[in-house]
Write a structure and sequence with these properties.
Length: 291
C-alpha cells in the first residue's frame, strides 16, 4: 500500500515521469525486466532494471528489493562487478539475505580495488550464524592467498573443514616458504596417504625425497673422494644405506606418477635416475628407451 500511495502522490505532483496511468506503466516495465532476466538476457535485463530503479528514485519511491538484487545479478553475469556491488549494497540496506551477502562478496572478489577483507569482516558473524561458515572460511583463505601473506595463509587454512588438493598445495608451499619444510613434507605425506589420487601432492613428496637423497648422495661422495681410505669407505657405505631409503620413497611415488601419466617425460627421467641410484640397472635401461 505504501508504494501505491507514493505512486499516486507522485502522479498528482505532476512529476511527468510516467504516463497518465503510472502504476500500469511501471508494472509493464517490471514484467519486461523480469522476462528478460528469466530468459538470461542479462544485458537487456540490467538496462531495464537500472531504468526502473532510476525512475523510482527520482520519484522518491521505495525501490523493490528484487530490483536491486536482479540488477546486481545481471551486472555480475556481465562482469560489471562495480555496478553489481552498488546494487547489492542497496539491496542489503533493505534486507540482509544470504544470497545477497554472497553475491556482494563474490562481486567484490572480482574487482581490482580489493576491499574484500572489509566486506568479509562486516558479514562474518552473519555468515557463520546462517550456515555459511565454510563459505566464509574459504573466502578468507582465498583472500589471504591473493594477498600473499604466508603466515595468514597457514593460519586461515586451519579453519577449512574440507580443503581441496589445490588449497592443500598452497598451504604446503606456504609452510615451505616460511622455512617449515619438515612440517610441509609431513603434512604432504599424510595427505597422500589419505588421498591416493592427489597426484600434485605425490609429485611434491617424490621431488622432496629425490632432492633430499640426491643432495645427500653427492655430499657423501664428495667427502669420500677427498680422502679415500677404508674408514671413509665404511662410513660411506653406512650413509648410502640411509640415502637409499629416501630414494626408495621417491621411487614409489614416481612409479605411481609414471603409471598415471605415462607420456610425461619428467617423471620418466626422475624415475630413471632414481633407479640408477638404487642400482636397478635393468629398470633404468627400460625407461631409457622411453626417452
Amino acid at each position: 500500500m505504501k508504494s501505491l500511495k507514493n505512486i499516486i502522490v507522485a502522479a498528482l505532483l505532476g512529476l511527468g515521469l510516467f504516463s497518465c496511468n503510472p502504476l500500469k506503466q511501471l508494472q509493464t516495465e517490471q514484467l519486461g525486466a523480469e522476462n528478460q532476466y528469466a530468459q538470461g538476457n542479462f544485458a537487456v535485463a540490467y538496462e531495464k532494471y537500472s531504468s526502473l530503479i532510476e525512475k523510482y528514485q527520482q520519484a522518491n519511491l521505495e525501490v523493490p528489493y528484487s530490483f536491486y538484487v536482479n540488477a546486481a545479478i545481471s551486472a555480475s553475469k556481465l562482469s560489471n562487478y562495480e555496478n553489481a556491488i552498488k546494487n547489492y549494497n542497496f539491496a542489503l540496506i533493505d534486507s540482509v539475505t544470504l544470497n545477497s551477502v554472497k553475491g556482494l562478496i563474490d562481486a567484490t572478489e572480482n574487482t581490482s580495488g580489493n576491499n574484500l577483507s572489509t566486506v568479509l569482516n562486516k558479514y562474518a558473524d552473519y555468515l557463520k550464524a546462517n550456515g555459511a561458515a565454510e563459505y566464509y572460511n574459504t573466502k578468507v583463505f582465498d583472500n589471504e592467498v591473493r594477498n600473499g601473506n604466508q603466515d595468514n595463509i597457514v593460519s586461515s587454512f586451519a579453519n577449512l573443514s574440507k580443503p581441496t588438493e589445490s588449497q592443500s598445495m598452497v598451504y604446503i608451499n606456504a609452510l615451505e616458504t616460511l622455512g617449515k619444510k619438515k612440517d610441509a613434507i609431513q603434512f604432504c605425506s599424510d595427505l597422500v596417504k589419505e588421498n591416493p589420487d592427489y597426484y600434485k601432492a605425490r609429485e611434491y613428496k617424490a621431488m622432496y625425497y629425490y632432492d633430499f637423497a640426491e643432495n645427500w648422495y653427492k655430499n657423501e661422495m664428495a667427502k669420500y673422494n677427498k680422502d679415500k681410505n677404508y674408514t671413509a669407505y665404511v662410513y660411506l657405505k653406512r650413509e648410502l644405506k640411509k640415502v637409499s631409503a629416501n630414494f626408495r620413497i621417491a621411487k614409489d611415488e614416481f612409479e605411481v606418477l609414471h603409471k598415471q601419466y605415462p607420456d610425461e617425460k619428467k617423471y620418466v627421467r626422475y624415475l630413471k635416475n632414481t633407479y640408477i641410484r638404487l642400482d636397478m640397472k635393468k629398470e633404468a635401461a627400460e625407461l631409457d628407451k622411453l626417452l
